[in-house]
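Notes from hallway chat w/ T.B., transcribed later so I don't forget. T.B. wanted the structure written out for a chain they're using in a teaching module, and asked if we could keep both sequence and structure tokens in one place. Agreed to drop them here.
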Amino acid sequence: MTRMSRGGEYLRAVEILYALSYTIKMAPKSGPAPEGYFEYVVPPLEGQWWQEGIHGVDYTRKDKFCWTAMIRQPEFVDSQVYAAAVETVARKTADRCCQSPARNLYGGAVCPVYAYRQL
């Protein structure tokens, strides 16, 4: 979850989520395929937006928006596959901030998730 006023955080989160997702998708091209791998289309970005402490939505208070961004992963993505993708993206981008996405389960599906809550 992040605030709208934090310039670039949402864009950076989306970039990293897609980098992780495509790293997992293309894993067989750079080494052995993860167990259970199958060809698939990377699912779309999903997001949740809200404002804490506000009933409904107050568009005049964009700085109060919080968000969670996620991309669902196929069933074969386990902790090892996910950790390898995080390591690969961090190495290729020379950016350790890709360690930030959490690996969460939503309805049984693995999703790298970026979240920020304004306190």
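Follow-up for T.B.: The domain at 9-116 is CATH 3.20.80.10 (Multidrug-efflux Transporter 1 Regulator Bmrr; Chain A). Might be a good example for the class.
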